[in-house]
Design goal:
Layout: E1 2-6, E2 11-16, E3 34-39, H1 44-51, E4 59-62, H2 71-83, E5 91-96, H3 98-110, E6 116-121, H4 124-130, E7 135-140, E8 143-150, E9 155-158, H5 168-185, H6 187-195, H7 202-219, H8 234-242, H9 251-262, H10 266-278, H11 289-297, E10 302-303, E11 306-312, E12 318-324
Parallel strand pairs: 2-9, 3-4, 3-5, 5-6, 6-9
Antiparallel strand pairs: 1-2, 7-8, 10-11, 11-12
């Protein structure tokens, strides 16, 4: 199944097909060489499957996890690209989750003032959310995604077969972003997680999410309006994720808690809480609330003492609302 994303800066295909990783080379431009990027959290099975299609290509592998999404890792990646003489007509191919896509995409955006890259997401989180739209970034000074660029991929290859090796916690972690898209754009998508055996619908869930994000990105590529709705749960969620305390949380887990915290409607909060528990996602953050609030004040979307949040009072209809940052302190859970 092919979905065409048409933005002002680039048109590219998102291909959702089981088994496509095994024939990725058929879909990636041959105008130059490829430079492969992955992390050690991607099973060797999948890295080897891609490497066999490009036996002469170098694969840069870094340590997995959010702590690697920083300027040092980016610098080492860029230096490796230079050492292997990556040219302007070559293509960076990212194989992995959101961290791999962020780093590889950002490196491609700045190396020689911008070269091509292809994204092959291997987690529910990246297949549902981060693989399309052109957002690339690294963390800096304890703030998530503080330094980055909009740089659209040349293609995105989504193979749901690779999810079979994903640990259960990481599988559920990514589904939090699908819950988010249901809450803000598509009531029937949210209801899948309430009523159905959701793992049996994973291909449909990912397709629905890709279609939602395609439409939003085409209408608002640089997040000047509607695309901000995709940040539902992220304002508080990013602060939860960056905080240190009794627990280390994954991105989707923090988004889930962030959505629950920001919601005002009691009935909707109960419905969301039930879904998060069904997905084995946390509903309360154990980390120090003062540290969380300090990090929240540093959110890149904040403007002095005010911040624009996303709110949902009716499922499928998210909207933007400007509030005092101090008002969010009492919402922390």
């Amino acid at each position: 199944m092919e979905i065409m994303v048409r933005t002002k800066t680039k048109t590219y295909p998102v291909i959702l097909e089981r088994g496509i990783l095994g024939k990725a080379s058929e879909y990636i431009s041959r105008k130059g060489r490829v430079f492969l990027v992955s992390d050690d959290g991607v099973p060797e099975t999948w890295r080897a499957l891609l490497q066999r299609q490009y036996p002469g290509a170098h694969m840069h592998v870094f340590l997995h996890g959010e702590p690697s999404k920083n300027m040092d890792t980016l610098r080492r990646l860029l230096e490796d690209m230079a050492e292997h003489q990556v040219a302007r007509n070559d293509t960076v191919v990212a194989l992995g989750g959101g961290v791999v896509g962020d780093l590889a995409g950002f490196a491609a955006s700045v190396y020689k003032r911008g070269i091509s890259y292809v994204n092959i997401p291997t987690t529910t989180l990246s297949q549902i959310d981060s693989s399309i739209g052109g957002k690339t970034a690294v963390d800096l000074a304890g703030v998530k995604n503080l330094v980055g660029a909009f740089w659209q991929p040349d293609a995105v290859l989504v193979d749901t077969d690779v999810l079979a090796t994903l640990p259960a916690r990481h599988f559920s972690n990514g589904l939090a972003e699908a819950v988010k898209e249901g809450l803000t754009f598509d009531e029937s998508l949210f209801e899948i997680f309430e009523k159905d055996d959701y793992p049996d619908h994973i291909d449909d869930i990912i397709y629905r999410c890709l279609m939602i994000k395609k439409g939003v990105v085409e209408r608002d590529e640089r997040e000047e309006g509607e695309r901000k709705l995709l940040n539902f749960g992220h304002t508080i969620g990013h602060a939860y994720e960056a905080s240190h305390g009794l627990a280390e949380y994954l991105h989707g887990e923090c988004v889930g808690m962030g959505m629950l915290a920001i919601m005002d409607d009691p009935a909707l909060k109960e419905r969301l809480k039930a879904v998060l528990q069904r997905l084995n996602l946390p509903i309360r953050c154990d980390n120090d609330k003062e540290e969380v609030f300090r990090l929240l004040r540093n959110d890149k979307k904040a403007s002095h003492d005010r911040i624009t949040i996303v709110q949902v009072d009716e499922i499928g209809k998210g909207y933007l609302k400007e509030v005092e940052i101090d008002s969010l302190r009492e919402k922390l859970i």
